[in-house]
Specification:
Layout: H1 5-10, H2 12-27, E1 29-30, H3 40-46, E2 57-58, E3 61-62, H4 68-85, E4 89-91, H5 97-108, E5 114-118, H6 134-138, E6 140-144, H7 155-165, E7 169-172, H8 183-193, E8 196-200, H9 205-209, E9 222-226, E10 237-241, H10 246-257, H11 263-276, H12 279-301, E11 305-306, E12 315-319, H13 327-337, E13 339-340, E14 342-344, E15 358-362, H14 364-368, H15 373-388, H16 393-409
Parallel strand pairs: 1-13, 5-6, 5-7, 7-8, 8-9
Antiparallel strand pairs: 2-3, 4-10, 9-10, 11-12, 12-15, 14-15
Helix pairs in contact: 3-11, 4-11, 5-10, 7-8, 12-15, 13-16, 15-16
The structure holds D-serine.
């Protein structure tokens, strides 16, 4: 696929970096759990002439003339999102998961209201009330975590905290939690304390769309997601909600926190939702899960501490404290070998977020390029060899050659 022919003539410097990045994506095993390869049709829509126009407002009620086709595109995206997830209402304008969450808070909270979210260090997200984020600055945030023995969410503890602090909203969903979240239980707890329930499914959306991870849609007031992780669409966000919240959600997104919607990205989201309804997408998600489970089992056999003993989704978390390696050193060594993961805090981590004691590994992107269980066993061996020899250049270079060979057998963006 041609990504740079026009750019080269105008800005060879940027074209060169795009070409280099393309090569990086082709020649490495991308195993950051939140990343994926967007299909060519998605890339074409995001690079299309739809970027040229303002369309503030919503279909049928815009602030600019000339939006006839934009209305159609946004209507299609909305209908597909509703159908895909079985939701009453969809707002397809948020430009990211973070903005989707901000809009939900704006729609139903006042500054100083109480929010209960999952602790960042236990696997939650910055926008679930972290003091570094506006969600923790504007609202009064409290946190629940995981059980220190099982690393699973302790729902009784969540209930206890909720009863003590009486939140106006409970946020469930995570960036680094490998197990099924019991959304029904969260709903029970939210009802007991009269709180709204927001489920942030940014990581799990693709698996949910495919029906292999339980959906929070029936239980939640609001569901937010990104569209570029397991969902394999463009870099963007989405809000789903119950009908009674639809008006407030729309005005919280625009004019609440955003101006003109990125209509080229909304077109790409429409394509993404269409693809996510296909049998092929379901097969892909099943393979993502099989691959993550195969990798987890293989790493456990090799002696690694895979938190919770496995996974119900596309990601696994490894606690490296027993291996005497920090997450940072592990991620740097693995990248040299061509296996790109991210350092990740593990629950109750004693290292700083820049160092961490763990790594997070995801299978969406490697599955998208066609890798299956046998390749996961190879990757587990290579991970082990690198982590046991993080300062041995010869071994790391040798693994890198093997990684490049494997990637050439499963090409992307040819
Ligand atoms: N940055 C995303 C992730 O890696 O999980 C969350 O926003």
């Amino acid at each position: 696929m041609d990504f740079t022919s026009y750019i080269k003539n105008i800005d060879p410097e940027i074209a060169d970096f795009i070409e280099k990045e393309l090569k990086r994506q082709q020649e490495n095993l991308l195993m950051i759990a939140s990343e994926n390869y967007a299909d060519e049709a998605i890339l074409q829509a995001t690079g299309s002439i739809l970027t040229n126009k303002y369309a503030e407002g919503y279909p049928g009620k815009r602030f600019y003339q000339g939006t006839e086709y934009y209305d159609k595109i946004e209507e299609i995206a909305i209908e597909r999102a509703k159908k895909l997830f079985g939701a009453d209402h969809a707002n397809v304008q948020p430009t990211s998961g973070s903005q989707a969450n901000q809009a939900v808070y704006l729609s139903c909270l006042n500054p100083g209201d109480i929010l209960l979210g999952m602790d960042l260090s236990a696997g939650g997200h910055l926008t679930h009330g972290s003091s570094a984020s506006s969600s923790g600055k504007i609202y009064k945030a409290y946190y629940y975590g995981v059980d220190p023995q099982t690393y699973l969410i302790d729902y009784e503890k969540v209930r206890q905290i909720a009863k003590e602090i009486r939140p106006k909203i409970i946020v469930c969903g995570a960036s680094a939690y490998p197990r099924q979240i019991d959304f029904r239980k969260f709903k029970e707890i939210a009802d007991e304390v009269g709180a709204f329930l927001l489920a942030d499914i940014a990581h799990y959306a693709g698996l949910i769309a495919a029906g292999i991870y339980d959906s929070p849609v029936p239980y939640s007031d609001f569901v937010t997601t990104t569209t570029h992780k397991t969902l394999k669409g463009p870099r963007s966000g989405l809000i789903l909600c119950k009908e009674q919240h639809s008006k407030k959600i729309n005005s919280a997104v625009f004019p609440g926190i955003q101006g003109g919607p990125l209509m080229h990205v909304i077109a790409a989201k429409a394509i993404c939702f269409k693809k996510a309804m296909s049998e092929e997408f379901k097969k892909y998600q099943i393979q993502v899960l099989k691959n993550a489970r195969t990798l987890a089992d293989a790493l456990i056999k090799l002696g690694y501490k895979v938190l919770t003993g496995g996974t119900d989704c596309h990601l696994i978390l490894i606690d490296l404290r027993d291996n005497n390696i920090t997450g940072k050193d592990a991620a740097i060594a693995l990248e040299k070998a061509g296996i790109v993961v991210n350092k990740n805090a593990v629950p109750f981590d004693t290292q700083s977020p820049f160092i961490t004691s763990g790594i997070r590994i995801g299978t969406p992107a490697v599955t998208a390029r066609g890798l299956k269980e046998n390749e996961m066993l190879l990757i587990a061996e290579w991970l082990d060899a690198v982590l046991k020899n993080i300062n041995n250049e010869t071994i790391i270079n040798d693994i890198n050659k093997k990684v490049k060979n494997l990637c050439s057998e499963y090409p992307v963006y040819t």
